Amino acid sequence: MGQYETAIQPPPEPLDDAQWQRIIAFGTPEQVEEGDYLFRSGDREYDLILVDTAEVDVVRDSLWWLGESVLNTVGRHSFLGELGLLNGQGAFLSARVSQSGQVYRVSRTDLRRIMSEDDELCDLLLRELWQRRESLRKGPAALTLKFVGAAATKEFESLQRFAERLDLVHTSAEITPGDTYKLEHHNVAPGDLPIAFIQGEPLLRATPGEVADRLGLSYNGDADEVVDLVVIGGGPAGLAAAIYGASEGLSTVLLDAVAPGGQAAATSRIENFLGFPFGVSGGELIGQASLQALKFGVRVYAPCEAAQLRSTDDGLEVTLTDGRIIHARTAIVTSGAAYRRLPLDRWNDFEGAGIYYAATQFELRHVQEHPVVVVGGANSAGQAALYLASNGCPVRLVVRGTDLGTRMSTYLVDRLHEDASVEVLTGANVTGLEGNGSLERVRIDAVGDVDARGLFCFIGADPATGWLSGLDQDADGFLRTGTDIVPDVLVGPWQRLGREPLPFETSVPRVFAAGDVRRGSMKRVAAAVGEGSSAVASVHRALAG
Questions:
Q1: Residues 74/11, Cβ–Cβ less than 8 Å
Q2: Which of the residues 80, 259, 388, 405 has the least number of beta carbons within 10 Å of its own beta carbon?
Q3: Contact 545, 499 (CB under 8 A)
Q4: Which band of pLDDT confidence, cut at 50, 70 and 90, is reported for residue 5?
Q5: Whether residue 4 has pLDDT greater than 50
Q6: How far is the C-alpha of 299 from the C-alpha of 88, rounded, in Å?
Q7: Which residue(s) pair with 226 in the sheet?
């Protein structure tokens, strides 16, 4: 057996009689014959299949380098489908009838009805669809989306990070310089990298946006569609806003330029978030929130970058970088902030090849058990240093200030001083970078040159508001909201509305802001969640007016 040619997965548990009767009420019966395909890999639209008296094989179709693989056989009172039914992704497996009989088809629209009308079936379906996605990530299905790229390059790592943040079923193959065997094996040239093989078909010099478009994850709304709420930015504030909006009956679209999660997804461990006494990684927290968003019907699109937001006579228009336009009645800007960089020579050379803005399992793979440098004096830097140290990395934590406790929580300061694998350098600065192709050494003014496989930069961020115009901002670019807005700008539409801005509302009516992008916000995950959900309360008031 090859790496992914594992045994057939166990069949799903059948629904009980009461559950079966309730769920088939949403479906359309169909007689099927042996050999029929109920859906094929590559289909943009496909149904949830309820298997009554038939039997159906779940098949990973043959690829140009590999034959087909039967992953599972689904029988009486079970169902076919996985998480793509909820997030809009096209089918990447096929369903082929192996024994004639009856099935029921449930459209995606009717699946949404089940999710909103039957709590028990909703939880059962959501849990099973998610578990199937996680199981498929480890088996032969992963070959349906394969990335091939040069190791430690920004382009290849952006593809991998995009797929992991969206929890896509995929696999990757790194090619090192001079590895002619792998180049010949994949039938590619160095200039073609990175490549995404989608159902075996190569997409040369692939980008996350192109892959998302091929998979059906790009925005594709009707030209005349108007949504109640568009949320721009998928960090904690944006996810909270989208979840609360959708759960309260608003048709909701969530956009993110990379993938849901924002800076929180880059946090290795959050220990002071309510309800998690043993801590939780940013990735786990965002993963559960993303699943919750799908549960309530949020339409999540990523990578999907907004280029312009403007008010019109009958609502709002969000123009995407590809020119497509989303029409909405309200918008919440949760675009967060962009990572700051150190003003050092060769910084661009080492981004993605030793310089990182996150410390998660993804980055750890490149530096594990090698010395690293972490720069920053706030909680995110402390959490990163402890995470890397716990995974075998000798860590130097470089802090410009002289007091580590000025911006960092006490519990983190104490743990850093107690950890023998972490050397804390206060009143210090990184002044140089060296390496041949990837980062090898870092110069620190307090100690000189040190070996470092990675430099993890947590020195703050600037508000991601450069794409916005016409909204009142402070001198640093943060959006003013509510009573913080300069009174001189509250003319024109505000006078016609006969009211002042609501909490979290910007200087443009029905445009709100929450999270790190908002002036005066507390830069903490829990605070961002609170702001996102609170902004939805103001959205309802604006729509009612």
A1: yes
A2: 405
A3: yes
A4: very low
A5: no
A6: 8
A7: 327
CA distance 139 to 72: 11
Nearest one of 51, 58, 53, 93 to 73, comparing CA atoms: 58
Which residue do the tokens 């608003």 mark? 250
With beta carbons less than 8 A apart as the criterion, state whether 216 and 88 touch.
Answer: yes
For residue 445, how many other CB atoms are within 10 A of its CB? Answer: 13
Q: Are 91 and 82 in contact (CB under 8 A)?
A: no
Instruction: Decide: 384 and 458 in contact? Cβ < 8 Å.
Output: yes
- Exposure on the CB side of residue 520, measured as CA atoms within 13 A: 13
Confidence of residue 61 (pLDDT cuts 50, 70, 90): very high
Query: What confidence tens digit (pLDDT) does each residue in 308-366 have?
Result: 999 998 899 999 999 999 999 999 999 998 888 999 999 988 987 899 988 888 889 88
Q: Which two tokens stand for residue 170?
A: 């995929």
Q: What is the C-alpha to C-alpha distance for residues 446 and 428, in angstroms, rounded to an integer? A: 6
- Among 57, 59, 109, which residue's Cα sits nearest to residue 86? 109
| Side chain identity, residue 31 | Q
Residue 36, CA atoms < 13 Å, CB-side half-sphere = 15
Q: How many CB atoms are located within 10 Å of the residue 392 CB?
A: 12
Region 91-120 average pLDDT: 97
Kindly give the pairing relationship between strand 306-312 and strand 337-339: unpaired
Look-up of token digits 């993605």: 352
The pLDDT of residue 138 is 87
* Local confidence band at 167 (pLDDT 50, 70, 90 cut-offs): very high
Least Cα distance to 515 among 305, 234, 166, 230 occurs for 234
**Of 102, 124, 129, 101, nearest to 114 (Cα)?**
124
In 3D space, the residue among 387, 384, 378 whose CA is nearest the CA of residue 408 turns out to be 378
* Residue located via tokens 């076919």: 80
- How is residue 390 written in tokens? 């716990």
Locate tokens 């993804």: which residue?
362
For strands 195-198 and 430-434, give the pairing.
unpaired
Regarding beta strands 299-301 and 430-434, do their DSSP bridges make them parallel or antiparallel, or are they unpaired? unpaired
Q: What is the CA radius of gyration of the chain?
A: 25
- Give whole-number Cα distances, 468 to 22, 493, 524, in Å: 48, 18, 24
